[in-house]
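Possible regression after last week's pipeline update?

I re-ran a chain I had predicted before the update to compare outputs. Posting the input and the new output here so someone can diff against the archived version. Not blocking, just want to make sure nothing changed silently.
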Amino acid sequence: MVLRVGVIGAGGMGREHVSNLVARPDVEVSVVADINVENAAAVAAIAGAHTSTDPLALVRSTTVDAVVIASPDETHAELTIAAIESGLHVFCEKPVASTVEDAQRVLEVEAAAGGPLVQVGFMRQYDPAHLQVFDALAAVGRLQHVRCVHRNTNDQWSRPLEVVLTQSLIHDVHTVRWLSGSEFVSVMTYVVGRRRPVDHLTVVGSLADGTTATLEFVEAAYGYDVEIEVTAEEGMVVCSQPGQPIVRQQHSLHRFVGDDWFGRFSEAYRLEIDDWVGGALAGEVRGPTTVDGVAAQRVVAAAIRSFRTGQPEPV
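New output (post-update):
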C-alpha cells in the first residue's frame, strides 16, 4: 500500500518533512500547499508533487490519505480539525493549537471521529540522545529532578514570552512529561529581558509524582544547543551531545555545535516521520498524541499566567 500525503506549509519544516517522506517507497507526496507560490513550487519539486494555494481544499480533496501540517502555528487547529473531519491521518507540527481552548477543541473533534488520528511533532521523543536518557532511567531509581536547557539562535528576532513558550519551551515541557510519566501540577515563571522581551526564561515546575523540573531557555548567539540532566534517588543521567568530530586547529580543540534545530534533530525528524507513516498505514497513532499536545499547552498557559501574576500557578 502507498500512503498519499499532502503537505501544508513549504517553509523549513515542510521541506524537512517532504525530504524524509520521499525517501520512503511506500509514500507518495501528491500535493504541497502554501500561500507562497514560489515556496510551494520549490518544495513540491523535491517530490514531483502538485502545488496548491488552498490548504483547506487539499484536506477536503480525495487525492490524499494523510496530511502533514507544517504551516504557521495559528493555523494548526483549524487545519487539523478539517483534516480529521475528512477522515485523514494527521501529522501536526507542535503546537497542536495556539491556545488551550483550541487544542481542547481539536481533541474533542478527534474523539467524536471515533479514535486517534493525530500525531503531534514533539520530535525529541525520537532523538537518539534523548532515548538514551529514557532507557538509562530504569537503573537510577525514582526521579527527583529534571533540568532541560534550550539555547536558541534567534538573535535577529524579538519574540514575546507567549511565542517563546509556545514555539520553543513547549518541547521541554513534553520532554519532562515523557521522561517522568507524570503531569505538571504547578509552575513558576521567571523572565530576564535586556535587548529583547525574553533573553533568559526559567520555568520551575512541580509534578504530580513529586518530581521537580527546571526548564531554561536562553537566546544564545553561539549556536543551537539542547541539554538534559535527570537526578534520581540512585544516580544521575546526562544527555549526550550528538557525535561530531573534534578538530585541532590554531592551538585549540573545536567541535561544531550548529546554528539551528534542523542539524541537531535531523535523525529525530526522520525517525518520527517514519513512525507516523507506519502508524497511518496501520490505522493507528504511535507517537505523541493530541492528548500530549493539550497537556503541554496547559503547562504553557499556566507559565504565562505565572509571569503575569508573579506567583506559582496551577496547571
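Follow-up from reviewer: compared with the archived run. The chain has a mean pLDDT of 93. Marking as no regression found.
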